[in-house]
Amino acid sequence: MLSRTADNLYWIARYMERADTVARLLEVGSRISLLPSAHGYRSEWDSLLQATGMAAAFAQKYGDPVQRNIESFLFFDRDNPSSVASCITAARENGRIVRTALTSQVWDALNTAFQELKALEREERSRVDLGRLTDWVTRHAAMVRGAIDATLLRDDGFNFLNIGYYLERGDSTARLMDVKYYVLLPRLEFVGSGLDNYQWSTLLRAMGAQRAFHWAYGGEVTAAKIADFLILNPQSPRSLATCSAGLVNHLGRVAKAYGRETEAQAKARALLAEVEGTTVDAIFDEGLHEYLTRYIRDAADLALAINEAYLSGEMR
Amino acid sequence: MRLTVDHMTRYLYDRPVRSVVQSHRLTPSAFAGQKVVDWEVTVSGGLRGATHRDGAGDQVQGWTIAGPVTSVEVRVRGTVETTDLAGVLRGHRETVAPEVYLRDTTPTRADVALETLARSVEAPDVLALAHALSAAVSDAIAYRPGVTHAHTTAAEALALAEGVCQDHAHALIAVARVRNIPARYVSGYLFADADGNAHEAAHAWAELFVPTLGWVGFDPANRSCPDERYIRLGSGFDAQDAAPIRGIARGGAKEEMDVTVAVLAAQQ
Amino acid sequence: MAQFNEMYQGTEVRAPYGRLQDWVAAMPQELRSLKQAEAEALFRRIGITFAVYGEGGDPDRLIPFDMFPRVFAAAEWARLEKGIKQRARALNAFLVDVYGRGEIIRAGRIPGRLVYQNEAYEKAVVGFVPPKGVYSHIVGIDIVRTGPDQFYVLEDNCRTPSGVSYMLESREIMMRMFPVLFRENRIEPVDGYSEKLRRTLASVAPKKCKGEPTVVILTPGHFNSAYYEHSLLADLMGVELVEGQDLFVDGEYCYMRTTEGPRRVDVIYRRIDDAYLDPLCFRPDSMLGIPGLMDVYRSGGVTICSAPGAGVADDKAIYTYVPDMVRFYLGEEPILQNVPTWQCGKTEDLAYVLEKLPELVVKEVHGSGGYGMLVGPKSSREEVERFRAKIVEDPGNYIAQPTLALSTVPTFVEEGVAPRHVDLRPYCLVGDRIELVPGGLTRVALKEGSLVVNSSQGGGVKDTWVLAE
Q1: What is the CATH number of the domain that holds B131?
Q2: How many structural domains is chain B composed of?
Q3: pLDDT of res. C57
């Protein structure tokens, strides 16, 4: 397949998953802001922006982190390349370019999301509440994903879509966890407090994983259980273990189809081995933030190798 | 006359480029005035590509250089036996109709001053008119390196009244076309003899179409017609179209070019 | 001016339209609105929102689709087909000639100036004969009708005529919405077009290509107004849709960048202009092109369709001479007539044009899309005078033609059904053989009385039927 086509497919997946993450982030933020806290209402939003690396861009355009502005920035703002609107537009544009590599169901799902987004943008803002926005995004992300799974030929294009999904999803799981541990709860005295547990629950809820978590673990929500669930548990659909295994699987299928291994396969296997070879204790010994940062960096390095081997078209 | 050429062009990139593609007109034209004794073009790290003789009779050779590279060296070495045909391009095989060379291009477009210059001379026939136009251009533009650049147009050079061989050729082409004489740009080499009255070893001049003779070369920069001191490589509408080397690098690096040319009379 | 209505002769219904009479009579207003909305939704859904004929404009704009079909009887089409193929052969013979010995110019049948000094004449391909001697592989010929047997060629398109996706999609949508119509009328299918196009392109693979040739479509990119058409054709033919950045030259060949490494490309159906093909040969600032492509092309490593330089045959100044080409190269009388044309560049023609200006249609020689055009009878005195000044300033840039009484076809309008003017663009394929699918693009001027069918100026499209014998 054309390298550029593979690149477009890969980015459809990354952008849809990114839109989903941003929506979930908004939900985390709004839930946490409902809770009385030591910082007061505003700084929680600020923390969230800090954690996602968007604080400077936000401050420059809007100044104070008021909820309404944050909603604008994270959802509608086209100047913010990570906003939901930017991501969905980019995903649909990538889809339009490779229209013929998609089924009509996948294209419909992408195009419908885009058309509805345009309708949402025209609506009176006061009539659009946050809950509706986040629901809307997760629904459309799921529809695109579902159409891909249900209708697409299992060829290399399907693999590149999945590679995009798993890379982005692993990255966003790591970042969402990092929001909690790195920013929301900077002070040690909160650890194990009711607030702490509430924040963890919120995070789970934002990932749509609250029920799954309770089925899997039961009892009290603790940092250790959460780390196990979101990092190590291969049953959890968003865990780093699941994402890494997905990358190994789909890169492996590409290598098999092309009859050639590249650096990308080796890097994906190393990423998975790293997750499979560790324990919750080891992660907390290293420091959760440090561990997540390392995962994010290694995954980015893998993305570079994938680009070099398949997407750039430079491979001879 | 037996002339030897050693022509080196070095392209330097400020960071590695992914690949380079070039198209060369670096083979001496096949006509009665010159005979290749030996000739070789090499390109550092280059893969020889497709070659063809185009409608104007030029041998065109493609090259590709796989990166990453930070420099590319094009070296031309060879010996040519030349004969003075008083500028006439005799025995040159080409199929492009002369009328095609009545079209102007940006560097050869005549402005009011060039039109005036073109109409300032009269002559009984096309050949005499061609000579008169060439002389008029020599008079109007003094040879002076450094005042003009690669993209200077004929009109700009005339306004400056100074320029190099490229500007002379462009100006002559412009005035010839005003007088409805097909005219084209020629690139090649010039042997600078002991008297020092030839200016540039990598040289350019113009050819005008004279119905009774065919294409005839005129070198207003040297107030002469090409003789046995000249080696002809190729032609085009203007300097860019006739360039001996055209190339493009992939990877957005800044390019610098360094050229050395030596044309010598071989020891007999 | 008497206008030929393709359906009605007075109150009589002409034979090809026989069954449509009942169809339209049986369709109540509500059903019609419903169907119209359905058609629009289908068009929007497939994303066919682009301008035909390189008119530019909003890429998300829909071109109005009119459900009332335009119908040709088998015998009418047979004659058109012969005329179109004849013309396509003559145009290609002309191209091979003017890039070769130029016999037609030596013979004094066409002034050399019009050819050799033409912007579209490419010096870079002089002396080169493309595979099978074909320069223009897809010839789009714009035809208007003024009577039962009167067809005139309005212009030829030898480069990359667009709009064929409308022919294909209009048919798809009509078949989906009105299957009964297709059972009742025996309508020749058009969906063989993509296979014929693929075969045509494969048939002109370069000599150096061994085995099954790899064909690609080269698009300027997804921002181009005809991108939908490019991707539709690629999809229907099962070939890659590439941009310049996907191709590169290495050694003697051209390759595309794939996830499995470089793959050799043999035939490029390009939908970009000559000037952008290769920055080493044409515009050095082109970002769309492939450096070194022309060297590979000239040495027989790849075929470019249409061949660079093909545009010289469809220039409006050359158009006048096409009937002469038919006689000169084929030794036949032209089956299709040209619209009488006056060259404003000729002194005697100019005088006539200036005198009769209010009655004439005047076009720019290099213009397209219905811009820079004067329709004398439809223009105010000021507009005519303003245009007169433009012609006087640069006469060589204009040609003039009589205002033709274009035929009309019934069309759904606000008030019901009313006659509207139409033209026709069939797509003739030229490779190792010459083929024409029975159909084409019918454009309709939706404004009452309007003769301008361009989509940028209120034109729409119709499905074009050719009935089987």
Answers
A1: 3.10.620.30
A2: 2
A3: 47
**Do B184 and B140 fall within a single domain?**
yes
- A2 and C258 in contact by Cβ < 8 A? yes
Contact C47 A99 (CB under 8 A): yes
pTM for the structure as a whole: 0.90
Query: Does residue A15 sit in the same domain as residue A86?
Result: yes
Residues A245 and A135 in one domain: no
Of A100, A107, A313, which has the smallest distance from its Cβ to C257's Cβ?
A313
Task: Compute φ and ψ for C173, nearest 5 degrees.
Answer: -70, -40
Verify that B71 and B143 share a domain, yes or no: no
Q: How far from B49 is each of A313, B43, B53, B65, C336, CA to CA, in Å?
A: 21, 11, 14, 10, 45
Chain C CB contacts of A100 below 8 Å: 231-232, 234-235, 241
pLDDT above 50: residue B96: yes
Q: Tokens 């309508």, residue?
A: C187
Domain termination residue (choose one: A119, A151, A183):
A151
- CB-side neighbour CA atoms (13 Å) of A32: 32
pLDDT digits (tens, 9 = 90+) for C407-441: 999 999 888 899 999 999 999 999 999 999 999 99
Yes or no, beta carbons of C258 and A254 under 8 Å apart: no
User: Do residues B159 and B98 share a domain?
Assistant: yes
> C340-402 in CATH: which number?
3.30.1490.270
Nearest to C261 among A96, A111, A315 (CB): A315
Write out the residue range of the structural domain in which residue A80 sits.
Answer: 1-151
For the record, the structure tokens of C348 come out as 């005697």
- Tens-digit pLDDT profile for residues C336-362: 999 998 988 888 999 999 999 998 989
> Predicted confidence band at B190 (pLDDT cuts at 50, 70, 90)?
very high
What would the mean pLDDT of A221-240 be, rounded to a whole number? 90
**What tens digit of pLDDT does each residue of A89-128 get?**
999 999 989 988 898 899 989 999 999 999 898 888 777 7
Find chains touching chain A: ≥3 CB pairs under 8 Å: C
Among C113, C127, C280, select the one facing B246 at the smallest CB separation: C280
pLDDT of amino acid C228: 87
Q: Identify the CATH number of the domain in which residue B255 sits.
A: 2.60.40.2250
What is the distance between the alpha carbons of residues A53 and C5, in angstroms, rounded to a whole number? 68
Distance from the Cα of C323 to chain B's closest Cα (Å) equals: 24
Is C334 an interface residue toward B (CB < 8 Å)? no
Q: What percent of chain A has pLDDT over 90?
A: 53
The answer on A177 and A140 residing in a single domain is no
